[in-house]
Amino acid sequence: MRLTDYFRLGFAGVKAHKKRAFTVVIIVGLLFSVITAGAFILQGLENIALETMLAPTNGKVLVMSSVDTKICGDNCDIAAEVVEIKKNIERYDGKIIPTTISQTADGMFYKAEEKVFSSEANNTTDVTQVIVPLGTAANLASIEMQERDAEVADKLATTQEVREKTLGKVVENEAGEKYYIAEILPSGVYANNLSFMNIGQGGNPLDLILGQIRTGVSQNFITKSAKTEPEEDESDMGQSSGFIAMEDIDAEAMGMVFVQFEDVKAAYNYYQDKANYCSETDRIFNMCGKDYKYQVVSAVSDPIMTYENLQNVWLVFRIVAAVLTVIALIIAISTYGRLIGKDMKIIALYHALGANGRQIRLVYLTYLLMLSIMAVGFAIVVGLALAAVLSLVNMTNLTQVFTLGFGIETESVWLVGWNNLVLGIAGVMIFAAVIAIVLGNGNFTSKELAKKMK
Prior knowledge:
By secondary structure, the protein is α+β, with helices and mostly antiparallel strands. The protein folds into two domains: about 5-50 and about 310-454, no CATH class; about 60-300, no CATH class. It contains 15 helices and 13 strands. It has a four-stranded antiparallel beta sheet with strand order 2-12-1-13. Strands 6-7-5-8 form a four-stranded mixed beta sheet. It has a three-stranded antiparallel beta sheet with strand order 4-3-11, with no helix packed on it. The longest helix has about 40 residues, at about 305-340.
């Protein structure tokens, strides 16, 4: 038989058992749709959260690795420890970013000697250009922020006000110093995570995921120093006034090394190194491992901890998905077996027409594969629909919590992201069809068929 014959006969089998065929498609498809919907939603939230955190650095992860002086002790050789940090960074293919620290009246700022932000040096003004989180931008512009216990509407209004008055503008603080705000970094403004509890909406199942997304703390960065000299104040006996920063300090002299990784997974692998890793709980109770020596934190928001937390969520999800998959697999195989068992007369007709056992097996394998593909397609469509509906229902809450959590402008948050787990479902359904054929092998031989037809 030609390939087209197998498809034609397989489709004929679907039509012949239309009711039972579509029953298995719907039942198995609904079970798998729970998995696909969960995978789409979880991956969608992970994607949008990490993309938000990494947007200022073009998808790369900027990390601060520093000597933990509590572990190193009073006689710590900072220079030697920095050398060890650098060696460890090289092992994980990180790119060391030479950085200096500038202590000003407005706080501590970092200056990277290489370009790490997409919006660096976009202005032509002579004032200091900075890239900072929303709270720092408000301070530099002398805008008063709302307290954390203020009404959600007031906090949203303040967030919008700060962005409108500072982003891409020259601002002046109370001391008369001017800054150009090149970009506002995502950082914890009114929330430490993205749980709906932060906007007074409790009990939402999405909080199981959103509560694991850490907003983190972004550092302040100077990307271009002012070129103007301090002005002389004649009314103050010739003393100069204006912005005067203290002498910049090499970050490495303070036991700190900035490093850039290509993606969050690479940064996470470095963070997991035994010399760098200590969980928050272990740190609180001073129970870090014996090899732990260095603190590793994200310099912009907190993609590393968010990634780690979501890996734990994925682990739980995969366990649940595995249980549902086994149930769906049992249902599919048993139903496929019954479909073959009811076709003894048709199988006998195939033999009478000259088809051998191998050809008949291929016909039924094609038939069952069609059912499997239909079930997977149904699961994907239903899963996408559930994720889309959940996005629409929670769009306002999602937009608000992202805005309050990161202090950035958010238009819409869609809970749809592709995950290869969906391909795994397709593989399971193909496996079900093959197993059903193997288990029903006796139905396709003329000898066994004769016994059953008696």
